[in-house]
Every structure is written in C-alpha cells, then in structure tokens.
User: Which sequence fits this backbone?
C-alpha cells in the first residue's frame, strides 16, 4: 500500500471512530470528507483563511460582505469596509448567513412529489429529469395557446437575475411576474412616485439632518436598510458633521428605534397621517413656507387643525405645536415613515402626508433631507422590484387563470393573512415548480422542486435600492463549493428556456449564468472607462471589481428640485382615520403585528442563531409573545407569562403575555416570524403567527396588505405559557436597588458637581 493511501485510510478510520458519535449522520463518506485536507485543492492552503467580498441576501438592503473561508469552509461573515452601504458593519441576519449555508434542513437535490399535494412527500430525481419534466410542461402550456397562464411568483428579484427572469417570461409570452415580499415597501414607492415622480426609493439622509421625525420607521431593526440607516443615525446623534441632532418617534408601540429616541409620541393607531398633516398645517400657517402655491396648501390643510388632530390622535395640541416649531426651525430636518403609518387601510395617504410635511418644511432635495436616487446604472435597465401584488395571483388561481406556477424565494402560504386563503388558491394551480432551498409552507405545495444555491455558492449582483445617494452595484461570488446537489437559479432558468425552445430560447444567453453576468458587466466597464479615461482591460476591471465587492462612485448626491404639488397630494389625503376590522364593543384592542430584527417576515426562523438571539426589548428567545400594557393586563386579570388567546373576527392564536410599559393601553402587539408549520426543525411548531388572524384587506392602489387594520380581544386560558426570557426578573423584591430623587431634590454640599 502506498504511503498516501495509508494516510487516507488511517485518517478515515480515526475520524469515523472518534467523532462519529458526536456528528452522527452529518459524517460524509471518507473520500469527500478527508481528501480535501490530505490533498488540498490548489486554492486552499490548510490553516490559512481567505476573505472574499460578496453580497448579503438575507434581506433586500444589498449590503456588501466579507466572508472568511478556511479549508474550503465558510467560517464568518462581516461587513465589507469598502462598501458604501455596510461600511464594515453587518446586522444579525447577515452574520447568520453561514447557518443558512450549512443548515441541516436544506433541500439537497431535485425532488418530485409522490403523495397528495401538501403532504410533504417527495422522492429524489436527477437534474436532467427535472429540467426535462418542467420544460415539457411549459411546452404543453404553450402548445395550447395558454402562454399567459404561466406565472412567476418570486421575491423582489434585483440585478441581472431579475432581468434574466423577466427575459424568460417575455420570451415565453407571459407578463405575469408577481413580485411579493411582506415588507416590499410598495406603498412607499407608490406615494413617492405619485407625488414626487421618483421611480427609485430616495435616500433619506439621516446622517446629516438636525431633526429626525419618524412615523413608525423602525430603521434600527428592519426598515429599508437598517445597517446604513443605523450608522447614519449614529453620526447624527454624535454630531459628526455639526451639532447633535434630535430624534422624535411617533408610533403606538415603543420599538427598538423608539427606545433610542429623545421623545416617543404614542399616537392612537391609524391616526398618524392626521398628525403629520396637522404638523404640516402649523408650518404653513406660521409663514415658514414661502412657495407661490401657499394659498393652495392652506386650503388643503385647513381641516387639520391642532384641536381636531389632538382629539383624533390622542396627542396633546401643545405637543403638536412644539413638534411643528422644532421641525421647521431645525435646518435641515427630515420626516420618514415606516410600517406603523403605511400598514393601515390609508397607508398611502400617511406616506403622502409625510412627503407633504417634508415639502412645506423645505426638506426635499437638500443635504440632510430627502435626496433622489438614480436608477440608470446599466443603460437605464433594471428589473422591476415590485410588480402586481399577491392578491392578483390569488384571484387568478381561484379563477383557473394559472396553468403553471414557477416559485422562488418567498412564502405566501405563511406571509399572507390566513383569511386571504393563499394556500387554498395555490392548491388550485395544476402544476407548480419551486426553486426554493428549504421546505417551507409554500414549497411543500409544489409538484417538483429544483433547489437553488445559497448566496455563498452562487454568482449574482444587486443594484442597491435604496442607494445612498449615488449608484451602487454589488457583486456576489461563490466563496465555497456547493454543499449539496443544488444549482444556480440563473442556470436553471437558462436550461428551462433552452428546453422550451423558440422565442424563450432566443431570449436566453449562451453559456452559463456566471458567463452571462460577466458579459453584462462589460457595459459598466465601458462607461467607467469613458468617465475615468482608464487604461484597464476588462479582465483587470472585472478582477478588481470582484476583489472590491462591486462598483460605485462615491460622490455627493445630485440635488434636484423635488417638490410636491397640492393638486397631486389632494388625491391621496383624507380627514378620516384608518378603518379597522372588528367591532369596537367586541374587539376593543388594536393589534400591531411587527417585524423582528432577526426573523423579519419569518425567513429567519429556521436559523438557530436567530432563534437564540434575545429580542432587544423583551429578551425573549425561541418563541413569540403578546405585548400588553400593565393597565390593560390588570384589567384583564393576566400577568407576565400567562397563556392567552388573541382573537379577531378572522381567527385566534395562542401566545404568552409580556407585560410592557412601552405600548398604549388600547393596543397589543405580536412579533411576526414564528408559528411555522413547516420550515425545518428550528422553526416548526414554535410560537404563533399573528398573520393568521388578520383580514385580507389591501390598499386598492398598491395591493399591499394593511397589516395594522385589525381589532382583537384577549381571552384568558387559565394556564401558563412558555415564555423564555434571558433576563431573570424586573422585580427588586423589596431590596430598594433602584432609588429615585425628584427633580432638584438631590442635595449638593458645594456648587461643583458632575
């Protein structure tokens, strides 16, 4: 026996015996597990780590990351210090990316359904068989003249992958691309487009503002780009460019962002738009606004006086005047709005009200205010981030309008209200092919699964939206070899297009998706070369861009004269507060379902690090809870940890009580993300999903769900719940640890003190 073969044999026997008990079925055949260490690949030096620049895909913010790889394994993820979005920082979801890559519940290869739909019974098949079957189903649909019955349901695909998917659908002859994420900001996009003419989400320059007025924008956790906005907020608070700025947060629940504010204003749910308009009226009436259309604005805002607004919003009219005065006198100031104002039946109206507020205060198109973002990075073309809403797909499925559904990277069976009956609608589709990496509630309804790589195994790119005031394109590259028998989604789409033939095949690029991506960047190279008179070859440009993590040209944003006209705004605002489902006499409490930093819309629930991460407000782990004000809890006769029913006209869920001072007495709140029936061992049968008790109410203008439009009642069950908290107690137990002194009551022996 040769010495090398002997070492392989001894190594396999030693590890198989010594660690087999610990790792069990995770141990792979000795050849695949040990040879990489004894005969390392050319690009691997045992014990030496490499850092690769790439793209985080845990949300849509488009952060640049560095991935530490040692011995062919991804070990750690950090923010890319060169990237203008992440600037070396990274959120908890980005840090947990390695647990997505090595998750034991990933789908390991193509599978075909063998049981009843939804039974989660599949058998493995080859990739050739999978591509051949789906291509055959597509040909069959086309031959019947029903190309329009092909639907693509995906998350908000960006970059060249989104363009490739659009090309495939157009070549096949279908315009039915449904882009759906629970928090896809479609109301924000619509409000900005209809009042300011902006196609891309603007840059909200928190870093350089002097007064930030936020209506429920939880940018410290989930809103838009938490890493970039939190960093900007830190600069604003530290006075990095001038004096320290002030921050006021308006929302009925004290979120993580509100906990960092100077002032929390707990306005009554559904009235935030009226509060914003009342502040805007104060500014116009004060004479601060100097526009030639001042009379039109006075007329439009006349119904929103302080007295009326105070009665509706439960915010003192003196407080309204103070905020208005501070907001208009601080230069610059900035108003922003998140789910707390956009998640009602009048969500668009609320966001338009914020645009009005920024307009009359003079905050549009200035440093420290609202700045436009360009969207013409690649010759003016980019994939649509938001298409028709999920309700369009549900209606088509219920009406036999879908012949074949292609599904990728979202989970509407979990992230839509139970009353929308998305599961029942999707079951009506004759044939479903999913490209998902995990067996979630929607993927389990598929007839065939062609699993995709994770971001650490694949090529791709993203055009940051919202950008930081200038254009940013981030590259994604494979940092490790594929762990399982998965494929790049781009290659799968190309394979299907060529399998179908005809116009669909003609729309597909030659070669692989990685080759197509590289070719597509040649246009940016040509443009960059013209701008910089560079002598770099394209190959050198490509290598440098990969090493850097993408392409951007940091510069001060081009300020434009953004404005909001009273005529365009008048179509969207109303004196009426938001409407709620549930009679007040039977369902007396407003329900606020909110996104958590770790789980977002539920996509992070299968990651153990994120389950173990204590919620920064409640410290709860591995479960869900309902937040109830102490006064309300006392009235209901419930205490911390009691299991209660949360019931609406559309259903009920169970959750333990978390007694919380930071919520209005007429409001309860439940985090979104738990309550999965499928999605792997770490997510299944854990906690409750508040979306199950919501109505199917959508904004007719955008198709966005009104998540905050429900009233509920709390019913005692008489039994304790499983509330696992990292803090032991908030009770002093009579030990007098925390002592208080009234203002001015502390004695001083001399005048010098700190």
Assistant:
């Amino acid at each position: 026996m040769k010495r090398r073969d002997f070492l392989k044999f001894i190594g396999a026997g030693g590890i198989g015996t010594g660690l087999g008990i610990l790792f069990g079925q995770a141990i792979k055949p000795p050849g695949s597990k040990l040879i990489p260490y004894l005969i390392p690949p050319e690009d691997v030096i045992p014990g030496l780590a490499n850092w690769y620049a790439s793209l985080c895909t845990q949300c849509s913010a488009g952060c640049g990351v560095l991935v530490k790889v040692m011995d062919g394994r991804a070990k750690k993820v950090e923010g890319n210090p060169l990237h203008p979005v992440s600037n070396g920082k990274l959120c908890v979801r980005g840090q947990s990316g390695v647990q997505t890559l090595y998750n034991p519940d990933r789908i390991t290869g193509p599978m075909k359904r063998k049981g009843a739909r939804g039974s989660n019974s599949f058998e493995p098949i080859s990739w050739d068989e999978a591509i051949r079957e789906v291509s055959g189903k597509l040909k069959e649909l086309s031959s019947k003249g029903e190309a329009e019955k092909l639907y693509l349901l995906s998350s908000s695909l960006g970059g060249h992958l989104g363009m490739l998917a659009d090309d495939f659908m157009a070549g096949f002859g279908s315009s039915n691309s449904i882009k759906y994420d629970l928090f896809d900001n479609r109301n924000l996009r619509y409000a900005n487009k209809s009042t300011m003419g902006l196609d891309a989400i603007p840059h909200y320059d928190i870093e350089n503002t002097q007064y930030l007025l936020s209506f429920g924008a939880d940018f410290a956790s989930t809103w838009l780009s938490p890493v970039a906005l939190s960093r900007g907020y830190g600069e604003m608070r530290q006075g990095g460019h001038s004096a320290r700025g002030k921050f006021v947060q308006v929302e009925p629940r004290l979120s993580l962002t509100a906990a960092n504010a100077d002032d929390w204003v707990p306005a009554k749910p559904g009235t935030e738009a009226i509060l914003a308009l009342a502040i805007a009226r104060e500014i116009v009436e004060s004479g601060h606004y100097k526009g030639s259309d001042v009379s039109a604005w006075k007329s439009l805002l006349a119904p929103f006086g302080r007295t009326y607004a105070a009665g509706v919003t439960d915010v003192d009219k003196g407080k309204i005047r103070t905020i208005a005065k501070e907001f208009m006198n601080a230069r610059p100031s900035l108003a922003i709005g998140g789910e707390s104002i956009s998640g009602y039946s009048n969500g668009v109206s609320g966001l338009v009200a914020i645009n009005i507020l920024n307009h009359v205060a003079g905050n549009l198109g200035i440093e420290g205010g609202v700045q436009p973002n360009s969207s013409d990075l690649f010759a003016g073309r980019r994939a649509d981030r938001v298409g028709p809403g999920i309700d369009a797909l549900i209606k088509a499925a219920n009406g036999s309008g879908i012949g074949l559904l292609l599904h990728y990277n979202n989970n509407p069976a979990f992230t839509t209200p139970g009353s929308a009956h998305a599961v029942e609608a999707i079951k009506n589709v004759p044939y479903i092919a999913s490209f998902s990496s995990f067996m979630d509630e929607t993927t389990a309804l598929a007839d065939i699964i062609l699993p995709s790589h994770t971001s650490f195994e694949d090529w791709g790119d993203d055009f940051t939206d919202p950008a930081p005031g200038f254009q940013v394109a981030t590259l994604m590259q494979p940092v490790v070899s594929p762990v399982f028998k998965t494929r790049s989604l781009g290659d799968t789409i190309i394979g299907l297009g060529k399998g179908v033939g005809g116009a669909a095949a003609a729309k597909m690029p030659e070669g692989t998706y990685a080759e197509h991506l590289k070719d597509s960047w040649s246009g940016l190279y040509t443009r960059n070369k013209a701008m910089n008179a560079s002598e770099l070859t394209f190959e050198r440009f490509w290598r440098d861009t990969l090493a850097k993590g993408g392409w951007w040209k940091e510069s001060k944003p081009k300020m434009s004269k953004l404005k909001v006209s009273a005529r365009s705004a008048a179509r969207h605002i109303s004196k009426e507060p938001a409407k709620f489902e549930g009679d007040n006499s039977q369902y007396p409490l407003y329900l606020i379902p909110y996104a958590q930093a770790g789980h977002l819309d539920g996509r992070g629930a299968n990651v153990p690090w994120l389950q173990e991460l204590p919620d920064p407000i409640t410290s709860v782990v591995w479960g869900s809870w309902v937040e109830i004000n102490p006064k309300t809890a006392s009235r209901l006769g419930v205490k911390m940890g009691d299991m209660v029913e949360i019931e609406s006209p559309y259903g009920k869920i169970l959750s333990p009580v978390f007694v919380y001072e930071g919520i209005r007495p007429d409001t309860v709140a439940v985090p979104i993300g738990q309550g999965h029936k499928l999605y792997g061992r770490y997510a299944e049968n854990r906690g409750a999903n508040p979306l199950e008790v919501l109505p199917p109410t959508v904004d007719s203008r955008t198709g966005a769900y009104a998540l905050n439009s429900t009233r509920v009642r709390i019913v005692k069950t008489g039994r304790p719940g499983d509330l696992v908290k990292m803090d032991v107690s908030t009770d002093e137990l009579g030990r007098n640890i925390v002592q208080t002194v009234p203002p001015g009551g502390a004695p001083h022996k001399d005048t010098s003190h700190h």
